[in-house]
Amino acid sequence: MSAPVVILGSGLAGITVARELRKLDAAVPITIVTADDGAFYSKPMLSNALAAGKTPAQLAMTPVAALAAQLKADIRPHTRVTAISTSAHVLETDAGAIAYGKLVIALGAEPFRLPLEGSGAAEVLSVNSLADYTAFRERLEGRRSVAILGAGLIGCEFANDLVAAGIAADVFDIAPQPLGRLLPAQTADYFRRKLEQAGVRFHFGSSIVRVERQGESYALWEARGERYDADLVLSAIGLKPRIALAQAAELTVNRGIVVDHRLMTSVADIHAVGDCAEVAGLNLPFVLPIMQQARALAKTLAGTPTDVAYPAMPVVVKTPACPTVVCPAPAGAQGQWREVADSEGSRALFEDVTGVPIGFALVGAASAEKQVLATVMPSWL
Fold first, then answer.
1. What counts of helices (H) and strands (E) characterise the chain?
2. Range 113-235 classified under CATH 3.50.50.60
3. What is the mean pLDDT of residues 285-311?
């Protein structure tokens, strides 16, 4: 038997590559290596599961045995890779060596950690996996308030989910507005007001520097000396691609693992996909780019070399208090925002230097325009 296609990681990127490859090739051996338990779940659902009444167990949509049967794959759960031997085509793991013919690195990203001081700093939670979410829900039992560090997409989604479930949420960010990388100022203000009406408390221009344990709760200290109290502290300041393993194997890395349009790294027979990959200078940690990458890579692995293409890819922000859709302009594009807001919502178009819309941000009732606008947006790649 030929050496298998080995997929390192069992998140959306890795499993989608396996699904798409199996559709194209019923015989190719596939091995999936993961440090997790191997069950498949939707990571984007973690930030809105509480108000929906979903337990962590209910989020695991496909147990590992069923997933292995579906994919006709050898899944190695709870297996940590310690090194990649590129010359020997072997993964070194804590459960022994695994040979590969083609290797797909789909390790995703890991949370940034703030350099916090204080006796409670090590107890600040992050949610980046189902195991993390399970721990968060266990700690949340009986609690009435959560401090969230970061007013980006994940921080706002968790804040909305918490207040909808009757738990107070205070959100701290050094930026002057929520969703600072996605929304222009007027549209962000509308979004902020809607979430505040739902119960979220925002603290902008605020940098938490110290977290102290206070019995069963926490005291948070802001850089200017102000104190805030919360039963739990959740960090949501962003993610960074997991590149350490690739770097140690001497693959080219930048922000992510550098790949070409066919998701090939700088080393033969090794590809990277998903949040850990940097495609043509772009690292896009959203669902639609991941799906585009996985489908293209599966075709390449099945024998039809295929470049990944990025059409316009709207991002849906899961904040029911204020429906929001953002379609970023292509990276590096020059232009300016044109915003129109009323009591029902805000519609913002990012126009290039000739006045042609190349991106948009829609909040409130304006989010209904998503499909129409997406059809006229330019491709990213």
1. 9, 26
2. yes
3. 96
